[in-house]
């Protein structure tokens, strides 16, 4: 799951459910003519291993055992390929039947994603050869682990088009990531009379933190509604974004409704 803010324009993998947060600067900052930068809000909080990440992570790692075929499949996925059957073959968990003759279909990726072979192999290699404390040791294994950790941060920054890798903060999950933004940047920048725009299709992890913030600060929550076909009423949603809007947060793909929200269009609507 990835949160994004400000001028960052994430280019996501097709079909990967995640949430995007966009914000506008506080009035004070906007008036001074500067924009909020990396020091104010991380542009990405990543809690999942993405297919492209696994592709890059494995490439060039000494002892990495993922096959070239496996890596190139991951890279094609990152490039927007729609050869899903081919992609499915990379996920050992998807090669099973839940009942005789019924292949497993797994849709709960927003909660726990299945891992492609390249990730499983790299995890096994890492725990077998490098596993050590990150940023807390001077010995060989610690240095290798730290390097891998920091390289992953660079890869994620590149993937979400973040201007600076230091904007990437790893968290355990989406709930922790959104609460982190709510408890830090949002508490410091959102006040009484400011507005937060969400949709009615949000998971609790992207609802409760904002409800608590609104209770605490007096900010107002506004909700985008659905069309009768279960997709977001985009025109209505855009009409909710005004000069009072401090933060817009919505999922990119709903794993309940299956719809893909026009994140780019919404981000461009931000005042
Ligand atoms: C659609 C959706 N969004 C967000 C979350 C929260 O994810 P996490 O458990 O990583 O905090 C879940 C978890 O089930 C989910 O299904």
TrEMBL record:
Residue intervals passing through the bilayer: none
One Pfam family it belongs to: Aminotran_5
Keyword set includes Ribosomal protein: no
Domain Aminotransferase class V: 105-269
Domain of life according to the entry: Eukaryota
InterPro entries registered for this protein in UniProt: Aminotrans_V_dom, PyrdxlP-dep_Trfase, PyrdxlP-dep_Trfase_major, PyrdxlP-dep_Trfase_small
Keywords from the named record: Pyridoxal phosphate
Region (Disordered) location: 1-35
Keyword Isomerase attached: no
Protein name per the record: Aminotransferase class V domain-containing protein
């Amino acid at each position: 799951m990835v949160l994004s803010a400000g001028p960052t324009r994430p280019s996501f993998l097709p079909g990967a459910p995640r949430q995007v947060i966009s914000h506008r600067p506080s009035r004070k900052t906007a008036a001074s003519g500067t924009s909020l930068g990396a020091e104010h809000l991380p542009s990405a909080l990543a809690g999942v291993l993405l297919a492209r990440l696994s592709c890059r992570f494995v490439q060039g790692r000494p002892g990495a055992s993922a096959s070239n075929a496996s890596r190139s499949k991951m890279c094609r996925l990152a490039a927007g390929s729609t050869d899903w059957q081919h992609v499915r073959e990379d996920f050992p968990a998807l090669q099973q039947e839940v009942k005789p003759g019924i292949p497993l279909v797994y849709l709960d990726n927003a909660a726990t994603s299945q891992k492609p072979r390249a990730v499983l192999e790299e995890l096994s290699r890492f725990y077998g050869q490098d596993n050590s404390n990150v940023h807390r040791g001077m010995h060989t294994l610690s240095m290798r682990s730290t390097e891998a950790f920091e390289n992953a941060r660079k890869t994620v920054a590149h993937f979400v088009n973040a201007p600076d890798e230091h904007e990437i903060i790893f968290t355990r999950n989406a709930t922790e990531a959104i609460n982190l933004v709510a408890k830090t940047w949002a508490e410091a920048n959102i006040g009484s009379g400011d507005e937060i725009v969400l949709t009615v299709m949000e998971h609790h992890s992207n609802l409760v933190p904002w409800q608590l913030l609104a209770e605490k600060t007096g900010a107002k929550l506004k909700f985008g509604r659905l069309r009768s076909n279960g997709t977001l009423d985009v025109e209505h949603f855009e009409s909710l974004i005004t000069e009072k809007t401090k933060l817009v947060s919505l999922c990119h793909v709903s794993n309940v409704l299956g719809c893909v929200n026009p994140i780019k269009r919404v981000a461009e609507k931000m005042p």
